[in-house]
Amino acid sequence: MSSNLKRARTEAQKDFRRQQILDAAEAHFRDVGYEAFSMGNLAKLAGVVKGTLYLYFKTREEVFLTLYNQSLVRWSQVFLNRLDRPMDDNDYVKILYVTAMADGSFVPLLARLEHVIEHNVAIERLVESKRIFIDRVAKIAETSAAILGLNQPQALEVVRTMGVLLVGATRADQGPSLQGEAIPADVQALIEAFSSENIFIKNACRIIAGVRADASPAE
After folding, report:
1. What's the N-to-C CA distance of the chain in angstroms?
2. I want to staple 116 with a disulfide (CB 3.0 to 4.6 A). Which of 112, 186, 194, 199 is the partner?
3. Which domain of life is it from (predicted)?
């Protein structure tokens, strides 16, 4: 991308430049991960000087928070579009897992959200992010309630819990990749039993059943 970009002056030009930076940031994040992500390299990829980045994002974490917001909206729309009736609990949670993992940015950013990212952003950006979360959770819960046979408070409890479970389950996949290796059947069975997909689906189904059976879930 050319580094000789004209200065953005109009609001439309600033919005375009901001999205251009975010597109480069997401590509950079997917390529090198969180720890190796560099604002200097982002500036080069976006075709701007480093100082320009800070006109749009005050900190590195603010870039990540904005990427998380984008990924949340993007993933949730894909997930909602995949839902259908009738659908049993297992199909529901499997679609949730598959769509979340397929996004590429959503789960890695979600895993770092409260622990790291939210600690170095302006309060205005944090409030904005939380409101996006509230809106998306409400939309998912509204659709999920009818599919899962839950009332709205129960559906909200399920959706909120799924995010926590997803982050925890995906930590099971941090071992070395053994794809293409000759693994004995008993060891392969053990690996599959502790895969994030199996852990998530089994426990997510149990959570839904438990919430459904609870006559007065916490709101």
Report:
1. 49
2. 112
3. Bacteria
Pick the CATH number of 1-57 from 1.10.10.60, 3.40.630.30, 3.40.190.10, 3.40.50.300: 1.10.10.60
Q: What is the pLDDT of residues 93-149, one digit of tens each?
A: 999 999 999 999 999 999 999 999 999 999 999 999 999 999 999 999 999 999 999
CATH of domain 59-213: 1.10.357.10
Say which residue the tokens 């426990």 belong to. Answer: 203
Q: Any alpha helices (H) in 149-184, and if so which ranges?
A: 152-170
CA angle (53 as vertex; 46, 116 as ends), nearest 5: 105
Q: Which of 22, 203, 42, 204 is nearest to 105 (CA)?
A: 22
